């Protein structure tokens, strides 16, 4: 086990990559600076992704962002190892990281293939905005309909009260007419009795 660790993390018989640039130091440093800036970029990108995932708990497929972030971290690590082997040629360790990066990159690709059809079906912000506008219009239309119905109910209620008032008046008039008819009937009887008395006399 110790021998395996030693083989992986020690240069062994390999020579530092910088020896190939003995008379071209400017080229070597251009490569080193390029790798260093790549490491910086590959470090900042996953930090940004992690910040977004932590802030937006409602992200769909947030695990995909984390997997992509892991892939980017490994890419940054490979660039860091490219710098390391210029002076410390632990090529076996670099090879292991390259293989891990390969596995994670293919896993990321396969996961992308898995979620692409589902992402395509997700509602876009514009579609959500259109739905919200349509819902707002529907709510406004229903509110107007409700207000119109309430006015109609109030009108019907007012008309019903007016009709009930007229019915009460008609009842009173009918009662009054009935009383007058009763009095007229009594008067007719009295007149008939008087006529009969006069005729007898």
From TrEMBL:
InterPro entries linked to this entry: ETR1_N
Pfam families: ETR1_N
Membrane spanning stretches: 27-53, 65-89, 95-116
GO molecular function: ATP binding; ethylene binding; ethylene receptor activity; metal ion binding; transferase activity
Tagged with keyword ATP-binding: yes
Keywords: ATP-binding, Membrane, Metal-binding, Nucleotide-binding, Transferase, Transmembrane, Transmembrane helix
Domain Ethylene receptor 1-like N-terminal: from-to ranges: 28-122
PANTHER family (alphabetical): TWO-COMPONENT SENSOR HISTIDINE KINASE (PTHR24423)
Name of the protein: Ethylene receptor 1-like N-terminal domain-containing protein
Organism of origin: Candidatus Colwellbacteria bacterium RIFCSPLOWO2_01_FULL_48_10
